[in-house]
């Protein structure tokens, strides 16, 4: 007998309005089944399709397929993954590191897969998708012909799903260090230990945008492994790359050497302290502000906004007339409108006249579902000082 979940009208309405999640509070009758794929009905017996079922999670049901008569088997995963990979054809022309699968943005909920040259790094982020580990692994091997698949199943969300947090091979072997390329820049990715799945792939197109406007003296704050700095260095006269991690700075210097770039100065320092100490000093013609997520939850949002504002005020004051600043936030809880409000406040406080040249979001390989705001987190703005 096929397991079935019965959901309240509010849960059914979420699906009808395009949101792929149904929360535990809207499950009237949970399925008598372990984590995996289940049929979903409303309280009137109307068939709603298939979902991934996570018994321990607050997000109990994640929509898979609206057709109640389909079969969620290896062939289904193969078809859906093939479509996701095909959508990356344009990205693959300019990079050897990019996202192959972006969860709900590819109608493959709770599944993330990144490609690093000939290897893949996957994250199975719900108990429901974990139940299809074998089918997903087999499909990815067949579709991509990869040499290895690593599971970076160490995010905290796995704990909330009742799953262990581990890093392990799903297929073959994946090196600890992989040299990848994006738009002519090469860098070392660390799939076993690096941030996210080994690198910050979601800023790839923003790095190109910032570099296209780079000139004169450039500053890259929160540089990490130097990805923005490397792109800036091809156009700017000099680049100062700042990060508080000595290990990150060391890796960034290796990446600069890999690209034969000698015009980057690497500084180990707190970004806020660095800006305060240089107030009133020589200005920069190009600045990148790419901090980590300050708002980890809704309760921390107001404090995060103050942090983002102060950071941008100091950076704007260091911008030379005619200079360009690219600034970003990866905090989901700081929405697009609030992000722009924060930048308006910062610009006013800085005493500078700044004009908006571009607003950016996630790149094409990190698609955002427009009816599910939780799938959108990255936003950025390119500003020019005209005073």
What do you see in this structure?
The protein is an alpha/beta fold and 387 residues long. It has three domains: 4-65, PUA domain (Archaeosine Trna-guanine Transglycosylase, Chain: A, domain 4, Roll), CATH 2.30.130.10; 74-178, RNA methyltransferase domain (HRMD) like (Transcription Regulator spoIIAA), CATH 3.30.750.80; 200-385, Vaccinia Virus protein VP39 (Rossmann fold, 3-Layer(aba) Sandwich). Helix content is 29%, strand content 31%. The chain has helices at 9-16, 74-86, 89-92, 127-130, 133-144, 157-160, 204-212, 227-233, 246-258, 271-277, 301-317, 336-350, and strands at residues 4-7, 21-23, 27-29, 36-42, 47-53, 59-65, 97-102, 111-116, 119-124, 148-153, 166-172, 178-182, 185-189, 217-221, 238-243, 264-268, 284-289, 319-329, 354-360, 379-385. The strands form four sheets. It has a seven-stranded mixed sheet, with helices on both faces. A hairpin with a 4-residue loop joins β4 (36-42) and β5. α2 (74-86) crosses α5 (133-144) and α11 (301-317) crosses α12. The radius of gyration is 22 Å and the shape is globular. The model has no long low-confidence stretch (mean pLDDT 97).
């Amino acid at each position: 007998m096929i397991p079935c979940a019965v959901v309240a009208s509010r849960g059914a309405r979420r699906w009808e309005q395009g949101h792929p999640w149904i929360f535990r509070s809207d499950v009237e009758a949970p399925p008598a089944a372990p984590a995996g794929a289940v049929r979903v009905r409303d309280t009137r017996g109307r068939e709603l399709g298939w979902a991934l079922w996570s018994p321990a999670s607050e997000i109990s049901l994640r929509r898979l397929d609206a057709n109640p008569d389909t079969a969620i088997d290896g062939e289904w995963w193969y078809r859906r993954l093939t479509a996701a990979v095909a959508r990356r054809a344009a990205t693959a022309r300019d990079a050897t590191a990019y996202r192959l699968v972006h969860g709900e943005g590819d109608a493959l909920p709770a599944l993330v897969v990144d490609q690093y040259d000939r290897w893949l790094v996957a994250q199975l982020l719900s108990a429901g998708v974990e139940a299809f580990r074998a089918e997903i692994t087999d499909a990815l091997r067949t579709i991509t012909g990869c040499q290895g698949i690593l599971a970076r199943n160490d995010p905290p969300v796995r704990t909330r799903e009742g799953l262990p947090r581990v890093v392990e091979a799903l297929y073959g072997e994946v090196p600890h260090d992989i040299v990848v390329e994006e738009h002519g820049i090469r860098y070392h990715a660390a799939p076993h230990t690096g941030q996210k799945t080994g690198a910050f792939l979601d800023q790839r197109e923003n790095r190109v945008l910032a570099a296209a406007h780079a000139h004169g003296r450039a500053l890259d704050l929160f540089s990490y492994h130097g990805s923005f700095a490397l792109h800036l260095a091809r156009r700017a006269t000099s680049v100062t790359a700042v990060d508080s991690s000595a290990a990150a700075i060391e890796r960034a210097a290796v990446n600069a050497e890999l690209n034969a770039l000698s015009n980057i100065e690497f500084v180990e320092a707190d970004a806020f302290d660095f800006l305060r100490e240089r107030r009133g000093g020589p200005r920069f013609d190009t600045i990148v502000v790419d901090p980590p997520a300050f708002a980890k939850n809704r309760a921390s949002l107001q404090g995060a906004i103050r942090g983002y504002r102060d950071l941008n005020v100091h950076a704007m004051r260091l911008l030379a007339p005619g200079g360009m600043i690219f600034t970003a936030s990866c905090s989901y809880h700081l929405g697009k409108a609030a992000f722009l409000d924060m930048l308006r406040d910062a610009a006013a406080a800085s005493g500078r006249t700044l004009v908006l040249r571009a607003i950016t979001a996630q790149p094409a390989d990190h698609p955002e579902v427009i009816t599910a705001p939780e799938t959108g987190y990255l936003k950025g703005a390119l500003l020019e000082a005209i005073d």
